[in-house]
Amino acid sequence: KHRGKLRSLGIETAAEHERILREIESTDTNCIGPTLRSVYDGQEHGLFMEKLDVRIRNHDREIEKMCNHHFQGFVDSITELLKVRGEAQKLKSQVTETNRRLQDDGKELINSMEELKQCRVQQRNIATTIDKLTHCLPVLEMYSRLQEQMRAKRYYPALRTLEQLEQTCLPRAGQYRFCSIMAENIPKLRTQIRDTAMTQLRDFLESIRKHSDKIGETAIKQAQLQRSLDSSISMQPRALIGRRGRKLVAAAMTGMDSDGQGGSPVSEQDSGILDVEDEDEDDEVPGAQDLVDFSPVYRCLHIYTVLGLRDVFENYYRKQRRKQARLVLQPHSNMHETLEGYRRYFNQIVGFFVVEDHVLHTTQGLVNRAYVEELWELALSKIVAALRTHSSYCDDPNLVLDLKNLIVLFADTLQGYGFPVSQLFDMLLEMRDQYGEILLKKWNITFRQVLDQDNYSPIPVSTEQEYRHYTSQFPLQDPELEKLPFPKKLPFSEFVPKVYCQLKEFIYACLKYSEDLHLSSTEVDDMIRKSTNLLLTRTLSHCLQYAIKKKNVGLAELVQVIINTTHLEQSCHFLEEFISNITNVPPDTVNATKLYGTSTFKDARHAAEAEIYTSLNAKIDQFLQLADYDWLAAVQGGGTLTASDYLIDLIAFLKSTFSVFTNLPGKVAQTACMSACKHISTSLMQLLLDPEVRQISMGALHQLNTDVKECESFARAGPVAGFQGDTLLLAFSDLRQLLELFTQWDWSTYLADYGKPTCKYLRVNPHTALALLEKMRETSRKNNVFAQFRKMDRDRQKLIDTVIKQLRNLIAQHHT
């Protein structure tokens, strides 16, 4: 069994060795190592070596057989090879020579090729350099231009250059250190440009704040000039103000660099929005173009737009302008003192809104119409409030009139720029009432001065020139007076022509205020008439009342006041015509206000008449105070009684006074005379009935009767013409009947006929008669204390008592 195993192992080993030998024969020598390793790893490498030797010997025998088979051919080949050797030597020599010659000849070519190679390398390098420079030079040129623009402060082009540099040139140039430095500087340059633009904007805002006054003054002058060029056309001037005024201020405020690139393409284009015309306008107000340079606004706007910060810029600009608007709209505390204060206030406001209007029309959305209108609404409310407050302090009509003209010019200027100004004109209509009140105060002083300085005497004229002078001031129409030779006297005093002229001056003053308020002729006419009516019914009426009622006004002065007011009353229709002529409104127009001058002068005349009556009565009272009746005087037995001295003086005064009344209307003189007589009669009756006079004698009644007869004689003589019959005597009828009743002691007739229309003593009041009888009874009682035994006196006392008793019964019967 063991031997069988060995036999099988030997077979397997022999087969393995056979396989290895075939592998060695067929495998590349480079890969034979693993095969040999497997032999040495086994235990039969000696056996393998033996087989290998056997295989080698087999191959040697095969090679030897093959060599023997091919040896003759080999010999032949060697012979042929030896023959070729000589030829090969010759060929070698020739090839060597040829190679030498070729080498010699190729050296120049190699040198040329080297040179060509170097040239090609240089050419490639140059091309590469050119290509790189082509991309780098624009960067450098652009950066150089950027630096130049920054130095020249042309920030908007610089920003555009910066944008082109960053987005186009630097990416093309490649990664170079200088490009990296430039790229790092770009944000810094943007920040620098933004900050510089904002600084310039702040400077601009400060500049326009300072120059608003000048800008507004220029715009207002332009509006004033335009209005004066064609005042007859109402709408065209305003349209031209809007066109030319905006153009003028646009020229004043548009800022451009000298090379035409200082602003921006947008700003240059927007400047064309203005109504600039190719016409010769050298006659316009110069100097506005030197006031404000708007290029900082355009530049900053475009810069912030490019930076994507337009909203930030717009909000900042509007916020700052709102602050400036509040400052501009805040008036100075003493603005109302001078017109210059108002003018400066208006100039600043106009300048502010002219700037905003210019910005509105020359930028694309920096400010919009809604924003400007909002600012204007705010401004309008503050302007109206400020003007109402400050104008209320003014008491000079000339200043108010100048202020009104300034407000009209202010409103027309801003209306030319498209701002609504109706509230300003409404406020001017409110100020018209204030102006009227100031005028009334002024004319009140004027009228009082005229009345105080008047001598209340007819005006003497000695020449035709003097006469024409006065008739030119006052419309006197008296043909009879014109026929009289010189020297002669005008019926009125100096205050008539002066008052009439002042009335016309007042009308002119009212007319001046109504100019340029865009009112119709009817409205102007109505305004003037209403103001004139206030002057007549309030101011002039009060002044006349003051002149009439002031102390120390004599009857002659009052008479002259009546004559003067009569002539002024007659001149009222001339004032009507005067107003109609200056307003071109016929006086008979429907709803036209009528002047109240006639009633004013009538009232003044009636007041003067009443004052004459009052003054005359006061003068009569002064004389009556001199009356010194002896109420206990005895009856004189013989001779005639004479009138009291005071009464004689009173009658003389009345005669002298009534002689002055010849120039008065007849009715006035008659009323004054009747009033004086009634007052004398009433005063004498009051003397009789005075409670302090407790006793009256018959002698006193006889003296009073004598005085009454003197008065009746004065009345019968007709001191004033125009009384019919004995009308003036009726003033003394009450006193006459009473005195006749007592002096004639006709009590039986009185008591019998009392209450009948035909009664002789119809005007005697029983109460009055009773009071007088009581005083007479007291006198009789005292006189009879020591004479009670005289029968006549006792009978008289009984008679008085009886009459008193009967009177009391009569009173009781008629009053129960």
From TrEMBL:
GO annotations of cellular component type: exocyst; plasma membrane
Pfam family, one: Sec15_C
Keyword Nucleotidyltransferase: no
Location of the Exocyst complex subunit EXOC6/Sec15 C-terminal domain: 423-775
Biological processes per GO annotation: Golgi to plasma membrane transport; intracellular protein transport; vesicle tethering involved in exocytosis
Key words, A-Z: Exocytosis, Transport
InterPro entries associated with the record: EXOC6/Sec15 (IPR007225), EXOC6/Sec15_C (IPR046361), EXOC6/Sec15_C_dom1 (IPR042045), EXOC6_Sec15_N (IPR048359), EXOC6PINT-1/Sec15/Tip20_C_dom2 (IPR042044)
Gene3D superfamilies: Dsl1p vesicle tethering complex, Tip20p subunit, domain D, Exocyst complex subunit Sec15 C-terminal domain, N-terminal subdomain
Location of the Exocyst complex component EXOC6/Sec15 N-terminal domain: 51-220
Functional note: Component of the exocyst complex involved in the docking of exocytic vesicles with fusion sites on the plasma membrane.
Family: Belongs to the SEC15 family.
Name listed for the protein in its UniProt record: Exocyst complex component
